[in-house]
Batch of 2 targets.
Target 1
Amino acid sequence: MSQEILAVYPGSFDPLTNGHLDIITRSSKLFCKIIVAVTTNYNKKHTFSLDERLRLLRESTKDLNNIEILSFSGLLAKYLEQIKSFVVIRGLRALSDFEYEFQMALMNRNLNKKIETIFLIPDQSYTFLSSTMVKEIAMLGGDVSCFVPKCVEEELKNKYQKK
Ligand code: ADP
């Protein structure tokens, strides 16, 4: 049954890290198709443009054939309805993620009771990893090669080290 399900992994991916990739890879084995839905929330200031975030995701997932990278704006619940999906994937790193994720999952279910949120836990080595931390390390000239795919590492260098 789960093999036929289209699932959506929403997020800002600003930028993509190996933690996000771990969740994408795990979900690609569980569901028939995954849409990685990149948020274009104009209230949130992003370091990477939407085009950059989409390109880096596409480049990093090109070997996974059931992954599609798209963008969306507005309410996730409405987007899910549009594409006829009712499964949301989110990653849980630590207890600190829990409260926000729990609230969001229940809110989405309130908006549409069919929506189920599936939480996946990444490899232990990624539980401390966040896009924000990666950007801070890169900004200070640190080595981020074990935290992000090669193409992201290069973009971070372009952004922070050639100024
Ligand atoms: P958002 O702004 O929607 O939180 P993020 O790109 O920060 O967007 O995160 C998208 C999803 O990926 C969230 O569910 C987040 O908990 C998860 N995530 C982020 N970093 C990691 C990581 N290192 N390991 C596992 N999941 C992660």
Target 2
Amino acid sequence: MKLNDPYGRKFKTLRVSLLNTCNLNCFYCTMGSEEDINFDHRPQKSAGFFSRIISRLHENLDLETIRLTGGEPLLYRELPELVRNLKLIGIPKISMTSNGYLLARQVAALYEAGLQSINVSLDAMDEASFYKMAKRKHLDRVLNGIETAINAGIEVKLNAVIMKGMNEDQIIPLLDYAFSKNIPIRFLEVMSMGHLHHESDKYLFSQQELLDTIATKYNFKRLPRTVSATSNYWQITAGNTFGIIANNSEPFCSDCSRLRLDAEGNMYGCLSNSNPIELNPADNDCVLQEKLQLAMSQKQLHHFVGSELSMLQIGG
Ligand code: SAM
């Protein structure tokens, strides 16, 4: 099926939120509550359920990448089994976005199952800032997870959300850490999702402010943007690169190729649209294609407006 919109956009990457439960309480997702409020008591959908839906989507879209996320995907019970299934379905690239807290002990099984890359969300390099952002102790667990994954041969990238008044002092330490490990890092502008839907401006640390901060230590030049990339990239004189995902300053909606599936099997064509499109593994091709057209029509063209849904629900 050739599904694209008048602007030539296709769905090539599917982000799957496996569950709405998380073991961290990051401020941008959940207001940084001290309580464990991120626990979804509904049973997790099975690996078989996700595999059937993804297989149907792949038949229709010829997907290039699946990114497993959540909630925290390492809390999903059948994670290695699902990765194995996705390999069998023929998905070319299987990746995961994780906070890395439980990564070290799961790396071997995930690597064996066929997981190729992990984006680790890391917003701080010191214990106090880590606690401020995530309301959890033991940053060392995340760093250990990163080390273990690198040593196992999994590609690791870092994502850091920088929020004004919260962790802008962590930009240089994060960059130094990434350079020392020779792993790519991207800084994210905060997005107007969930409880920040109407007040993300208060916390926005813009692309320009990020560049100004990095310029206090490094010289760099901008690299050309590749089609469909979420991130702008710069190269420092020594050769390392860093990226900025500038949802606010330079939204990249016009060539976005992402489709999202939530933990209940609902599909979304855009982060800025909170109307779920319910999928059923038993949908025939005609029904599925109508639903995909609907998801495509949800895409924005220029502006990222966000939604009341937090990334915990729609999948970050
Ligand atoms: N638990 C996993 C993790 O921490 O990577 C996966 C889910 S989490 C929702 C994925 C990522 O979404 C976060 O780490 C963060 O980078 C991003 N995110 C969530 N809410 C955000 C917001 N309001 N603004 C910017 N990024 C956000």
